[in-house]
Amino acid sequence: MDINQSTPVTTAEKIILGIDPGTNVMGYGVIRVEGNKASMVAMGVIEMQKIADGYLKLGHIFERVTGIISSYLPDELAIEAPFFGKNVQSMLKLGRAQGVAIAAAIQRGVPITEYEPKKIKVAITGNGAASKEQVAGMLQRMLHIPEEEMGKYMDATDALGAAYCHFIQMGTPKVEHSYKDWKSFVNQNKDKVHK
Hints:
Elements: E1 2-4, E2 14-20, E3 25-34, E4 37-47, H1 54-72, E5 76-80, H2 88-107, E6 112-115, H3 117-125, H4 132-142, H5 154-170, H6 182-188
Helix pairs in contact: 1-2, 3-5, 4-5
């Protein structure tokens, strides 16, 4: 399942691929960054529910992620870190799925950054305990995604969230300032100084 938006490509841009690892459904989202603006290029899922063999699932993940990288040519990959649950077998399977997606990016020379789920939620909603629905709703508003293009799987919007979190973490270029004293620094950087 792919949802695409066509936007003209310019030379001063960055493409970020986000991945939400999974063993039955793996989400991916692609954003284009131009200057300080981001727009959705694509989002979708890799479905593996019908593949019974765990190793064949891993091979499918590798093939599909490699294909997505070939299609969108991302400059960077943002991947959600597995959360630590009580079921060790589930964690092992999820870690393998994440590792295979990372290996596909490494093979293609794509730099990788990993983000904890809570950090992604904070970046998107300001709340580390936000629901998947709240993250999806904020992304829909921020990236101006029409309702009909929102997928049925939250894995796709979770992956888009990883990519958008990476965009936010990139920040804006630092501009050199000269400050005559501490007070002038504080006055010009009120958002960075906490009392």
